[in-house]
Amino acid sequence: MKQNLKRAGKFYYFYMSKYPWQLLASVVVVIFFAVFNSLAPVYLGKTVQDLTEFLHAWQNGGGSLSQFNLDAGILILCYLLSGLGDFGTSMILSWIGGVATGEMRSGLFNKMQRMRVQYFDTHSDGDILARFTSDLDNIFNAVNEAFVQTFYSIAQIVGSLYMMFSTNTTLAWVGLATTPLALAIAAVNIRVASQAVDQQQNDIGKLNGYINEQVTGQKVIITNGLQEDSIAGFETLNQTVKKTALRGQIWSGILQPLMNGMMLLTSAVVIFGGSWIVMQGGMSTGAALALIVVFVQYAQNYFQCIMQMTSMYGQIQLAITGARRVSEVHEQPDEVKPAHGLPVSEVHDEVVIDNVRFGYQPGKEILHGVTLKAKRGEMVALVGPTGAGKTTVINLLNRFYDVDAGAITIDGVDIRELDLTQLRDTVGIVLQDPQLFSGTIAENICFGKPDATEAEMYAAAEQAHIHDFITSLPDGYQTQISDEQSVFSAGQKQLVSIARTILTNPRILILDEATSNVDTVTEKKIQAAMDNVISGRTSFVIAHRLKTILKADDIAVLRDGRIVEEGTHAQLLEEKGFYAGLYKSQMVFN
Ligand SMILES: Nc1ncnc2c1ncn2[C@@H]1O[C@H](COP(=O)(O)OP(=O)(O)OP(=O)(O)O)[C@@H](O)[C@H]1O
Asked: Which residues form the ABC transmembrane type-1 domain (predicted)?
């Protein structure tokens, strides 16, 4: 908790300290508000006293209302000026809140673009998205509402206490008599309520996770006839949410009426205590009435502030958690970029993976000394059972992760010494599950080279065997797509991805062949597109269909992070090992 507070404090200080003048202005305006807000009950008392004295004189045939008018005028002015202060503070803090959260959002987004792939591999999309949405919303609400309220309340409490003690010390103590009890009630309630709300959030999280999974897997559920089981699973979780939500709502909702009750009790105590003081004598009726009215007002003000602060507790808690979660992202290490990275323009000689050892987590090695070599223009293929480490090798080649031991070199230079941006430009990747972005097909193909000419784009699409399909669409290259609403099948998406890669013309190519089943026509197109993109490039291909790699210069069979067989297709067939077995089993179906 202390650690969280420290983190949140640092986070808010970083962003808030950018607006010193606005913050100073809000402090000035809040003091302005507090002064006039605290003066108002005094003038309310004065008007009561003036009125009583006027009525008394009037009954005796005299009296003037001029003092009453003056005090009532000042009272109205006090209300107006405190309202103005209230308005001013709200405006300034809302402005700061809006601008600061805008900055936090762009800070977070920029940071995301600099972070290591490891972060994205170890955090779910939903979790990352929540930092942009609910966490930033909570931070904004806190600056916009909770901080403003707390700020006011503190100023009002200080003002009320000052006025109470300077007006009548005995009655001030009487007015505070119920405070310890109120604070104790609030503390217990907040503790129980926040536990109940935490539980509620957890259970809602579980329910959302379940719904997400069931919606995504709807087709599997339908094909297996598991709708009833799906509903039963949902009902169990939903019942739990209902119960914990009810408990959370009762505990968090009970505080307000409890505090209201305490406020009324305090008013009664003040009236009672005030009457007793008044009855000790020495006060005119007007002054006595005024004193009681003033103290009831102060006691109510004071209690309202305590109520407001306690009701803001939950929101502030969420804001602290939000700040912690956003700070956590900022504390993540950036990608390591060599300060004076060497340029990479051509692969003159070879790419070598030299006795590489690597694990995602310390003490859990995945690759146990892998060595592979691709001469300029050669194609090296990686095959092996699932989980063997093929994708891991690829992750290292592109420096998504760095090796633990050994090295990866291009023309003898360790890739860790190369300029990272240039390295990424040099290495092109066609992923198994290509990602499309919202925009036109043209924008998607030119993603890596936005300044490509139309002719270059058409040539790339033709080489990727997707040009004809695109031109058959009514809007052709200008067809709007997104990843969810794509006009492409899985195989065609792969072709778009190949066109994208061809356009950027990388020297080294990494190709993760799609495992998804595609029809034979598309498969042939993918094969032809792959041949085109591989041709003339130094390439590493993860192959699932061995047909793809018959012409590879070198085929490495990876198993449990080790290369267990290596050679050309013909050599490996002769070895009659894992590869030969796999090839035979695939040929049965071809
Ligand atoms: N981000 C990660 N964090 C931790 N472990 C990982 C991560 N990615 C992969 N692994 C583990 O590393 C091992 C090798 O995985 P990898 O994805 O490289 O295998 P693969 O041969 O490409 O498998 P497939 O053919 O199924 O894609 C597996 O045991 C896997 O669980």
From this structure: 24-318
